[in-house]
Design brief:
Length: 366
């Protein structure tokens, strides 16, 4: 296997999701940037949303017009069954930023990477990071990229690897879990055109349900509960999952026009708990996106905060490389304020549901 001479860069970013790609595309015109990502193709993600306020972020980065021209679905509002028997309807008509968006994550992620590449960032994908060594002036990295070994010297290292925060944990940081929330979900075809672009949330005794349109006339149905509760294994197969969903009155009518394949197999599964990385910065490194701060899906803020932290980190790193010793600590302080605000608002939303206070799931969140 061939090995080239070390490549000198200012910033090496590990992970090419929204946070890593956003950081790269904002920094590439100012600094030498390389992005290392182990995935060969896009992750399979459905039902993800982007808050209306993302319009301002994308506009500031010169990306808004291109984003709108893509095949993402405007989200004009939805219905919530939470805190009582009466549904609460919401719409985005009064939001000065317009609607939110249900995004095609594969399309969205590929687009951000393409913009980063066009602005001058080097993207190594698929590439496996094998070695990380701290040096006096930065970092020496060794990555396996299909048929060769690449050595990279970087002044600053960024963990954008997602919830796992594999790089930061290797450097001594710890991931703290807020709770044990997990998610099981199925994807179906939505045959009711009038409902596309609308979201749905419903609380039940052992967790809560979420449903939203996705591009391509699809609809995701997801159930959130704690991994150690009986409800988690009870919905492990598709038939049981759908039976439980249809036993929830508001969901039963919603699913009448959603077509699931006759035998969809086991629902997809993922961790959904909030996480915090401590510390989120260190000597010569920092974390962005889910690697730094993971959000409960109820907040609907994950992709937005990935973009925000990527942009903030780009400006902070550029300032730090220009000699501003306060830039990276300032980034950490802003991240901590975001975390505090998010947790306060999330607690307030969970506290609104008082119908099952004797149930373990809801008791933990009070």
């Amino acid at each position: 296997m061939a090995q080239s001479a070390p490549t000198e860069v200012d910033v090496a970013i590990v992970g090419a999701g929204p946070a890593g790609a956003c950081l790269a595309l904002n920094l590439a015109a100012l600094r030498r940037v390389v992005v290392i990502d182990r995935a060969a193709g896009p992750a399979r993600r459905f039902g993800e949303s982007l808050a209306p306020a993302a319009r301002r972020l994308l506009d500031d980065m010169g990306l808004w017009r291109t984003f709108v021209a893509q095949e993402h679905m405007p989200c004009h509002g939805g219905t919530t069954h939470w805190g009582g028997p009466r549904p609460i309807d919401a719409d985005g008509l009064r939001d000065p930023d317009g609607p939110g968006w249900q995004i095609d994550r594969a399309l969205f992620d590929d687009w951000l990477r393409d913009v980063a590449r066009a602005r001058g960032a080097a993207i190594l994908r698929p590439a496996r990071l094998e070695r990380v060594v701290r040096e006096s002036a930065g970092w020496l990295l060794q990555a396996h990229h299909p048929d060769r070994v690449i050595e990279i010297r970087a002044r600053i290292l960024v963990d954008a690897s997602g919830r796992n925060a594999a790089l930061a944990r290797q450097l001594g940081a710890r991931r703290l879990h807020d709770d044990r929330l997990v998610c099981r979900w199925l994807l179906g075809k939505d045959n009711l055109a009038a409902r596309r672009g609308l979201r749905f949330v419903a609380a039940e005794a052992e967790g809560w349900w979420y449903s939203a349109s996705s591009p391509g006339d699809r609809r995701i149905l997801a159930f959130h509960t704690d991994s150690d509760l009986d409800a988690a294994p009870a919905v492990a197969d598709a038939a049981a999952f759908l039976r439980r969903a249809r036993s929830i009155a508001p969901l039963a009518s919603l699913l009448e026009d959603v077509e699931f394949v006759p035998d969809p197999g086991a629902p997809s599964f993922c961790a959904a708990h909030g996480t915090t990385l401590t510390p989120s910065i260190g000597e010569g490194w920092l974390a962005v996106g889910d690697a730094a701060l993971g959000f409960d899906p109820l907040a609907s803020q994950g992709v937005f905060q990935a973009l925000y932290s990527g942009l903030d980190a780009a400006m902070s790193i550029d300032a730090a490389l220009s000699g501003d010793a306060r830039a990276i600590p300032g980034y950490r302080a802003r991240l901590e304020r975001i975390a505090a605000t998010y947790r306060a608002r999330l607690s307030a939303v969970y506290a609104q549901e008082t119908r099952w206070t004797n149930q373990t799931f809801w008791g933990r969140r009070r």
